[in-house]
């Protein structure tokens, strides 16, 4: 199991124009692709044509690529900006398309903000929500404070310290994803 690949999709959680989170998501995705033990796919909430008059798990079959990716997934990375100490509503709408498909899988957060806290408060706001979905939160977050100073206009990272930080972030996510995968495959649960 140690060398077995894990499938870890990444969700970019904002559809805002001129979003700085996109640079972060693309950079994290590229770092994930560099690792032999990780298979990944980048999802963008902007690509979900969510209905204006309906909500929730009844809609999951309208989004088969997302549904099937999460069924296959061993874990999930969510890149999210902090908007007024909270997370974007569109991200919550996408996450709420599924429920049992998340149970006993790891989730790791990448917080993004224009201010000095780097999305710490959005991560704190998100933990109880993803816990209710059945996801298990890693203890290693990746925070991008003052994100507007971290990338150039082409999306190139300007702060090399993140190259070390992302390794610890991904190491923990891979470990937890493998441990939970073993549990899903080997231990009885009413959820599987």
Annotation field: number of helices: 5
The overall strand count is 8
The appropriate CATH architecture is 3-Layer(aba) Sandwich
Report the average pLDDT across residues.
95
**What structural class do you assign from the helix and strand content?**
alpha/beta
Distance between the termini: 20 Å
Could you please describe the fold and organization of this structure?
The chain has 192 residues and is an alpha/beta fold. It has a single domain, classed as 3-Layer(aba) Sandwich (Rossmann fold), CATH 3.40.50.360. Helices cover 36% and strands 16% of the residues. The strands form 2 sheets. Strands 2, 4, 5, 6, 7 and 8 form a 6-stranded parallel sheet that branches. A two-stranded parallel ribbon has the order 1-3. Helix 4 (120-133) links the parallel strand 6 (105-112) and strand 7.
Task: Please render the helix and strand layout as text.
Elements: E1 6-7, E2 10-12, H1 21-33, E3 38-39, E4 42-44, H2 64-72, E5 75-81, H3 89-95, E6 105-112, H4 120-133, E7 135-137, E8 142-144, H5 161-186
Parallel strand pairs: 1-3, 2-4, 2-5, 5-6, 6-7, 6-8
